[in-house]
């Protein structure tokens, strides 16, 4: 009797974030991230709530083949990188704790990792870097925040060029996308100030802002971008490259894990 092939998908943990709507708290993940994982990366997303104890987070990772750190409306607490005090309403301390712990577990365990917007900032802070509170400030800088008067799709439209740098995962995706110039969207006020020693730049905006990084000497895909590839994940060539590369790394992790005795 022939064995039934194992068609189990790779499982990717998606760290959620806290929102309060009409005085009710929610753990939130935008659907677009889940759609990008399911249809472009071809993996199964599993939501990880903020504020988990270490033991519970470790239990999640026992079944994960990857982790996605999404964007969010909150900012990372400046107390984690020595920045100026911030308004408590702009923070999400449970998300901070969960994301930073998840980064450390993923990197130490060789589990693929993709960060988007806040996720890039979390990766930099977790490895010892610092953040700028306003990337648009400074001579020669372009505006890095969205125009909230525009329809949502136009807010997420590609608006400025990025230049590949080095040979990391995102730099490779940029070169494979074969679009010149390579344009990305820009919807972020905060970003990297001092790059963590454990990271290398994969792309910069034309004004010098760091737009993508990867983890030096990582055993697998471990990278992050400042823009939002999830919004046009099926149409934009660079977005497709990023999610496909991440999905392939997650499936490779799943296969390697199942082959272990």
UniProtKB/TrEMBL annotation:
UniProt-listed SUPFAM superfamilies: Class I glutamine amidotransferase-like (SSF52317)
UniProt similarity note: Belongs to the peptidase C26 family.
Gene3D superfamilies according to UniProt: 3.40.50.880
Keywords assigned by UniProt, alphabetized: Glutamine amidotransferase, Transferase
GO CC annotation terms, alphabetical: cytosol
Transferase among keywords: yes
Organism of provenance: Mesorhizobium sangaii
Catalysed reactions, as listed in the record: 4-(gamma-L-glutamylamino)butanoate + H2O = 4-aminobutanoate + L-glutamate
GO biological process, one term: polyamine catabolic process
Protein name: gamma-glutamyl-gamma-aminobutyrate hydrolase
Pathway, per record: Amine and polyamine degradation; putrescine degradation; 4-aminobutanoate from putrescine: step 4/4
Protein task: Involved in the breakdown of putrescine via hydrolysis of the gamma-glutamyl linkage of gamma-glutamyl-gamma-aminobutyrate.
Xref: CDD domains: GATase1_2
E.C. numbers: 3.5.1.94
One of the record's GO molecular function terms: transferase activity
């Amino acid at each position: 009797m022939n064995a039934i092939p194992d068609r189990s998908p790779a499982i990717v943990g998606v760290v959620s974030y806290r929102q309060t709507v009409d005085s009710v708290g929610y753990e939130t993940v935008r659907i677009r991230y889940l759609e990008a994982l399911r249809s472009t990366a071809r993996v199964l997303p599993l939501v990880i709530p903020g504020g988990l104890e270490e033991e519970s987070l470790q239990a999640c990772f026992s079944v994960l083949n990857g982790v996605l750190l999404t964007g969010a409306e909150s900012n990372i607490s400046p107390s984690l990188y020595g920045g100026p005090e911030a308004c408590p309403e702009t923070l999400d301390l449970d998300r901070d704790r969960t994301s930073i712990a998840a980064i450390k577990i993923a990197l130490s365990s060789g589990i693929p990792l993709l960060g988007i917007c806040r996720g890039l900032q979390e990766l930099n802070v977790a490895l010892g870097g610092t953040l700028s509170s306003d990337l648009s400030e400074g001579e020669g800088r372009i505006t890095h925040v969205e125009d909230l008067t525009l329809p949502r799709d136009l807010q997420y439209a590609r608006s400025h060029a990025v230049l590949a740098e080095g040979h990391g995962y995102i730099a490779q995706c940029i070169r494979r996308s074969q679009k010149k110039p390579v344009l990305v969207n820009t919807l972020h006020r905060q970003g990297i100030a001092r790059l963590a020693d454990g990271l290398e730049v994969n792309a910069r905006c034309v004004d010098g802002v760091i737009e993508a990084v990867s983890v030096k000497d990582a055993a697998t895909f471990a990278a992050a971008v400042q823009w939002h590839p999830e919004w046009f994940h099926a149409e934009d060539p660079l977005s497709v490259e990023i999610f496909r590369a991440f999905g392939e790394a997650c499936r490779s992790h799943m296969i390697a894990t199942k082959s272990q005795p």
